[in-house]
Amino acid sequence: MNVMKNRLITRCLSTCFLSLYLFSLCLSPSAQAVAPSESRSGEGIRAGEAAGKNVKNDPQAFSELVKKLDAFEVFFAHFEQQSVSENGRKRVEGGEVWLKKPGQFRWQTNEPFKQVIVSQRDKTWAIDEDLMQVVIRRQEDISGNTPAQLLSGNARHFLSAYHVMQRRDGKDDVYTLVPVKDNDLFEKLEMIFTGNILKAIVLNDVLGGHRRIVFSDVKSGSSKQFPFDNNLFIARVPEDFDVIDETVGRQQKR
Q: Where does it live in the cell (predicted)?
């Protein structure tokens, strides 16, 4: 029972990671936002402070992070995700992530069990091999903020809702994001770069959990530099899997 519960929780967290990426697809490509010091009203800043987030915005850090995130069209990496729940339980997962702007994403967990989340057109598929289950959702029905938005879509628009700070840690640049207003998924997120290469994402969630996603063998740049097979972004639903299709509100079996 605990194993099944852990798999369900992990699937939800993986979907949360994807949801912010999907949220970005709903933003107008022409949407404009400016650095925090220029765009946020005193009311917004006071709301963040009222939530215990007494931090200062760094417009230069904001601009530098936008530049780094806008510098690539495609992104691939192996990942290791280390998480500690609010009760101290530790967990390690591993897999690969592929992203191609705009609108294509694949997050594939290989260990300790297999799960694939794929975005395709206006829908997402969460395929869990161990549970023999597929959950299909419309992108427009997925809300919330997760790190995937920072790897795709309109980074400038997204970051305008956060306090952005930067510090040096040896050879690394660490960018810290704290929501101006209360966030239903995370309290603080850090992106760690070595030069222009994304090295890790660290997330503290609102329930007291902590997770660190470390990337290796990173390939990021233009689609000409790193051409991806478009089949990666097509959902392959195995036969005999239970299909929970939330786009039509019914459960079926293939």
A: Periplasm
